[in-house]
Amino acid sequence: MSPSRRSVLRAGSAAALAGALAGCAGGAPDGVGADGRVTIQLWHGQTDTALKVIKSLVADFHRAHPDIRVDLGGGVLADAMLQKVTAALASGAYPDVAFIFGSDLAGIARSPQVVDLTEHVRKGPTPWNSYWPSARDAVTVNGRVRAVPAMVDCLAMVCNKKLFAEAGIDLPEPGWTWAEFTDLARRFTDPGKGRFGTGWPGTGDEDTVWRLWPLIWGAGGEVIAADGKHIGFAEEGVRALDVVRDLVRDRSVYVDPKPGSEQMYKVFLSGRMAMVPTGPWQLPDITQAKLDYHVVPLPTFGGDPVTISGPDTWTVFDNGEARAKAARTFVTWLTQPAQDSRWDVEAGSLPLSRGSEESPAWHAHATGTPGMPVFTEALTSARVRPVHPAYPRISQALGEAIVSVLLGRATPAAAIRTCAEQADAALLIPR
């Protein structure tokens, strides 16, 4: 999997960099060798286990497609991909395929060098409608498909079964509420033992922000209002932050001061936290720590379940028709159920499509991993952040609002008012 998986959720600085993309032009040689074989460059952004998997998949692709060569170049981790690709587009020497965070796609897609894949995906071997709605939404910008899904995930609540058993408290079940969540967090908190009910990242980055969107959506809000000029959570954001305020009031939330949430997860893995909202990427560490756990969908405000998915993308760039055609062939092959299910099992993700979910490899993995089916089922109700150039600035404003409440510096109402002023100003900037 890519480094610190939910640093993959960062909004990045797409808004600040978008202006550099508008005038990008140029490209590399056509990549066609004397023998007719086409070479394409893949900037994969992966490390460790995921890098081994992508290398193995590329080797298989070469055997099945001897007329195409995939060069695993780039040498940049996923966290730095936005800056790397932006600089490459400005210089005119850019890759054919790059791993782009879904939250960065709107800014990157402003470049004319990003290939429009709308017609390609509609006639591809994996039916477009087979992908989860969240995966489709994450690669669609202004009604056009500007990338293909690379990986999907979502949030659910993971509970420490031992702590629940010791306290004689029943494990939560689907349909529980945010009020029940805050009550449980309070009951499990014990300052004397250094134990917390739950945790929340406190750096104000996208890892802090994306955990609040399910509450805002569950309360009836939207990220951006229908008029496109204002945030869509002026009231619903207050209700969502009321939950955060209650956790702070009860001193039941561990606020992680460092990026990446590593400290928060260490507290949970050490047995000093009862519940943590997280994704499937954390299950291997939980299993390795020999922690007996229970996975349950996120709480609600008494309505339908909703979670958030943070799909990332394989974005294709135009280096001439021969290389663009080869790149489309590669990403199409890579996202087929046979390859995708292997990526999901070995690198730690969720299936991109129903076809991948139904594959024997994924089925065996899911049934053998406690809680994994909960994450997969949650994809049916998962939503994504809007693919909008202003999203990074909205996220920054909301991140500051969340931190101000986590640190007791502002009330939910005051925090959202400040957030609205900053985010609305970003939405008024011409695109």
TrEMBL record:
<dbReference type="InterPro" id="IPR050490">
    <property type="entry name" value="Bact_solute-bd_prot1"/>
</dbReference>
<keyword id="KW-0732">Signal</keyword>
<dbReference type="InterPro" id="IPR006311">
    <property type="entry name" value="TAT_signal"/>
</dbReference>
<feature type="signal peptide">
    <location>
        <begin position="1"/>
        <end position="27"/>
    </location>
</feature>
<dbReference type="InterPro" id="IPR006059">
    <property type="entry name" value="SBP"/>
</dbReference>
<dbReference type="Pfam" id="PF01547">
    <property type="entry name" value="SBP_bac_1"/>
</dbReference>
<protein>
    <submittedName>
        <fullName>ABC transporter substrate-binding protein</fullName>
    </submittedName>
</protein>
